[in-house]
What we know:
By secondary structure, the protein is an alpha/beta fold.
Amino acid sequence: MNKMIEIQNLKKIYDQNEVLKDINATVEKGQVICVIGPSGSGKSTFIRCLNLLEKPSAGKVVFDGVNLAHIDDKQLNALREKMGMVFQGFNLFPNMNVLENIKLAPMKVKGVAEAEAEKTALELLAKVGLADKAQQFPTSLSGGQQQRVAIARALAMDPEVMLFDEPTSALDPEMVGEVLKIMQDLAQDGMTMVVVTHEMGFAKEVADEIWFMADGYLQEKGTPQEVFENPQSDRAKDFLAKVL
Length: 244
Ligand code: ADP
Ligand code: MG
């Protein structure tokens, strides 16, 4: 057992709205976790609490042995470098070509030399199947291609864990597969991943653990087989009956 992220009694309240009530979970190094659950159940809020894009109202998140409640701004930047994040929207910089998009953070944030940043960027582009798109601008790419660039950009920081929040939800159906394939490759390479997704086929095949979120709690945690084939709670049974 090699704990990477520990979440204890995590709570998040917006005004009066208690979105996360009491979340407890552990992500081990190399694990792929898929977080599933109804819309509005707090999945995005949860994943954003892991890298402090949202500040937990109570409880703790411990990453690599460091309690995130106690870190300063400098440590926060270091934390963000170690946690790559990919969102539903692709969020590429529109005024930069693909190569520049990928090179920027390693150069600016980590002080990597341009030649090295470029070499890494080109390798990552090859990995996501877009070696020939280095000089293109984001708007000239399809949604699936843009999302693959976004994944390459996150990987350029050499993160310890990748957080995905519904990375394929904004894509036309025919582009979903190419993005999931890249994520599957990443998982096979041993990347630690937390993936919020509605892609149950992907979750079944790739996840080590499924976490089912509803009503502010992780109501079920287990292997895909346990959660999909033998859900315990009515809430999970209900949800799965609709999506499977
Ligand atoms: P999911 O990702 O599972 O669809 P979210 O985490 O986006 O769920 O949202 C859970 C609940 O928290 C919703 O009721 C939503 O309206 C509320 N919420 C999310 N973000 C904010 C915010 N920044 N301010 C206030 N309420 C929010
Ligand atoms: Mg969401």
